Amino acid sequence: MPTRTNKPLRYRQIHLDFHTSEHIPGIGSAFDAEDFVSTFKAAHVDSVTIFAKCHHGWSYYPTKVGEQHPQLTRDLMGDMVTALVAADIECPIYISVQWDERNARLHPEWRARSATKNRFDPSQLEAGWHTLCLNHKAYRDELLEQAREVARNYQTPGLFFDIVLTPDCVCEQCLETMAEQGLDATKHADRLKKDEWVNEVFRSEMSAALREEFPGLRVFYNCGHIHKQGPQRFAPYSHLELESLPTGGWGYDHFPSSARYAATLGLDFLAHTGKFHTSWGEFGGFKHPDALEYETAQMVALGSKCLVGDQLHPNGAINPDTYASIAPAYARIEKLEPFLDGAKQISEVAILSAEYFHPVGDRNNHADDGAAQMLLELKRPFDVIDPSADFGSYRVIILPDTVPVDSVLAHRLDGYLKQGGKLLLSGCSALGADGEFAVPTGVRSGGEVGFEPSYLRAGKALDASMTETPFVVYGTAQEIESQGAQVLADVVRPYFNRTYQHFSSHAHAPDDPDAKPLGAGVTLHNGVGYVAYPIFSIYHAMGQPLYKYVVRGLLDKLLPDPALLTDLPSAGRATLVRQAEHGRHMVHLLYGPPQVRGKAVPTDEGSRVMEMIEDIPAIGPVSVRVRLQERPGRAYEALSGAELPITDFGDGYYGVSVDKLRIHTAVVFEDRE
After folding, report:
1. Average pLDDT of span 535-554
2. Which terminus of the chain, N or C, has fewer Cβ atoms within 10 Å?
């Protein structure tokens, strides 16, 4: 058995899907080891995840536990391992878990039976994966034995277990489990709790057994999202892999929020995008090379290693066009690697995740996503945290829209404020049923206002971009009374709500200029800013820039001297990192705004839009300022080495100007010797 040391993840990885039907002949017949390896080398790839068992349930090596693909006549996985290892390309190995069509046919009693109609329990006459339930020990035992078989016989740094899901299962075994645990099978929240318990049993059993026999073996369990449920959830993991295909349904705003949560957990992590135009498993689809350059550059800018998903043709021939499109992105990352190892983002702002308090089993919380989207557009580097985090590491903590605050959390937040920390709250965050807030906001709530939408009237004292007249906010505000807080904006009522009894014009009624305000809309009190609307969820839904400017105005008051300033447009992205070992700061500047090109991409639920990136133009000049303890010794562009003149702006700010930015550049500020 090879020695495993659990070395850091590599930066330039491929995930090589290989889900092949038994009805396709000649599996692996065109595989050429030399072409396989040389193609990866030419594309600057240094790690490839290859397949032991796929969603169809077939294995791609001689197995005594599962069953080799009936159209395969060689040890395809073994040939891949031999070729990759000889070329110093790592080869983690993939095992499909809950999607296994072979076992679904052999063991229908293992199949998940969903309480609600969903893609995890398709009909017998529907093309789709029939999910297996991990509450069946016999299947968990089979998975463990196949994992052991792979790890004993092949030189691999780790195993990737895919499809560990919450299928809303009410099979007989799950109903028995729920009865034993006192859970109500008719309630979705209880079924989710049971699903999560079942998955944790599987993960903890598997990792304990593998760690005992194979110390240092990497182990990861994929469910399509890194759930923000606290670090204890990830105890069975050796590292994290963030599945987040921007064009595959996740969108371009999902990964940054996920990455900035993963970065707080203390585990090495990488991000998954895909070479596909749409999502996983698309044959003949190619993403534009500009998109791959942007996506991988954003990964490393946010502290992640890189992975691009591909799917091998059933005949085993590697696609040269795919790797021609990947090569420019990975060539950039390879040159950047000396500036990436050990680099840590400087995040002065944290989002206390609403998802942590409201787990729903899917991958999107609109309050978290809206807050992350705003901060990205405002160029305010941030982390996403749960209550286990050290609050004192941040100058401002945002509680977006729906974060409940119990007595324990209130005590911690109060201590944070007393140590000089600042809070930004919105909507119902920290709000009790009695209208009082659990932290000292200087306001109280009389409940929700009776109008939706309503209007916000703010002045330039909040933000220079505020309108003189009230602007509509598409959500429900709290009726807020100031009890000492400074009021920066008022909630203004319309003449009436739109009903069949009274309506005006095409949509909502206009604001009533003669009515008294419904209450305070934006307040500030002793380092606590508050917005009476669930402003982050509303921004995520509507995208009105004025909503973002409300938050910008509060942030500028709570954090008037941020560590990073840049004139990049709102579609640009910027992060500030510190590479302490080398005595340097770096600013990653990115510009690659996605556009909606596809209007009706089919999904299981209907259709969705397609965001994509193509032919990114160069912009510039772009200026950037950083707040440092002392003047840097020099500044230069990481890739070209071109020197950049430094301007001292005073108050600890030092800046440079980049003449031209196309997709990405990293500006290095080296410490004085």
Report:
1. 98
2. C
- Taking CA atoms, 462 is separated from 421, 529, 558, 652, in Å, by 20, 11, 12, 25
Residue 2 has pLDDT above 60, yes or no: no
Which residues is 603 bridged to in the sheet? 606
**How far, in Å, CA of 430 to CA of 413, rounded?**
10
Q: Which two tokens stand for residue 27?
A: 């599996």
Q: At what angle do helices 254-262 and 366-378 cross, to 10 degrees?
A: 90
According to DSSP H, which parts of 114-213 are helical? 137-153, 172-180, 188-213
Tokens matching residue 11: 């930066």
DSSP lists the bridge partners of residue 396 as 349, 422
The pLDDT, as a whole number, for residue 361 is 67
Cα–Cα distances in angstroms (integers) from residue 664 to residues 276, 300, 332, 582, 636, in the given order? 22, 11, 10, 22, 14
The answer to whether the CB of 326 falls within 8 A of the CB of 361 is no
Q: Which of 276, 354, 260, 339 is nearest to 578 (CA)?
A: 339
Amino acid of residue 359: P
Mean pLDDT confidence for 217-244: 95
- Contact at 8 Å (CB) between 214 and 151? yes
Contacts of 494 (CB under 8 A, 6+ apart): 451, 453, 454, 455, 508, 509, 510, 511, 512
Q: What is the tens place of the pLDDT at every residue in 184-204?
A: 999 999 999 999 999 999 999
pLDDT tens for each residue of 121-162: 888 888 889 999 999 999 999 999 999 999 999 999 999 999
- Arithmetic mean of pLDDT, 306-323: 97
